Amino acid sequence: MPHNMRAKFGISLSNRAVLFDWATTDDLISAAKVAEASGYFHGVWVGDNLLSKPRLESIVTLSALAAHTSTVTLGTICLASFPLRDPILLAIQWASLDVLSGGRTILAVCNGASEFDGPQFAHELEVMGVKSNQRVGRVIEGIRILRRLWSEEQVTHHGKYFQFSDVDCLPKPVQQPMPILIAANPKPGQADEATVDRIMRRVARYADGWQTDATPVETFRQRFQIIKEYAYQGGRDPSTFDSCLHLMVNINNDRDKAYKEAEVFLTSYYGAGAISRERAEMWLAYGPPEAVIEKIQAYIDAGCTTPVLRFVSPDLSGQLQRCIEEVLPAFRVK
């Protein structure tokens, strides 16, 4: 039976690790089942990319997880391929997943990487026929299309990127409306205040919540407050907005060993030099259970409604079990 928790905890399963022989599909399914059975986890999440960072395709993976679970929500961290996907096909696929799961999905979308983030991303955009400067526009237009296709019988759309007439898109999702989050993490030094403000306004206007990672606690607090203020100004109820944080976790009584194991995992996953010590410290909750609890609690205090934990260790089942036994009980409502 689900426990009454202070936040909606999620587990992030690495559908990319399967390609590196770090985990099997059975490992992912088993972890999802254990997480659900514990009563501590509200959702199961997987990442998404197409060619740039190959992995088991996210919607297909979530469909498999849906078949082996019955209560946890199923979400994306985040659908980075959203600007590359045809919105009509995606509407059918995601609505089908929502039907198959009995209305348990949360769609988190983002711009994906730009051509300047690395040659693999530039190549992916070129192959998929999408220019880097089109990504934001395609995300906004795509969200608008999905919302209409999922709620209206006949949809005609003539936009900048997509045009179609008289489309009756079936099946409709069980959830009406379907929750959509926008993932965004403008980094200090790379985005000026005007850019950050524009991104926060975009989340407040088009999404039902915000997803982020590697964001300092105070920055998280400030940005989520700004999003809620813009939502209120736009006539929306800010109390319904979710804030989802993707947090890397390694539980080890030896803090140095916890960091080193996490570092090896992240370097293997993202490439040497891709994750600086500064970013790792922001991204990671590591060390003894009390250190992990303290870090998570700081974000909950800052307004995080949905902490999603990814265990950065070759021992997924061991880390999950320690989290269930030694970390998550601290967040039960007494």
How is this structure best described in words?
By secondary structure, the chain is an alpha/beta fold. It has a single domain, classed as Luciferase-like domain (TIM Barrel), CATH 3.20.20.30. The chain is 43% helix and 18% strand. The chain contains eleven helices and eleven strands. The protein has helices at residues 25-38, 58-67, 87-100, 119-128, 135-151, 193-206, 217-233, 255-270, 277-283, 289-301, 316-327; strands at residues 10-13, 43-48, 73-79, 105-109, 155-158, 163-167, 180-183, 209-213, 242-251, 284-287, 306-311. It has an eight-stranded parallel β-barrel, surrounded by seven helices. The protein has a two-stranded antiparallel sheet with strand order 5-6. A hairpin with a 4-residue loop joins strand 5 and strand 6 (163-167). Helix 1 (25-38) runs parallel beside helix 11 (316-327), helix 2 (58-67) packs parallel to helix 3 (87-100) and helix 10 packs across helix 11. It is globular. The relative contact order is 0.13.
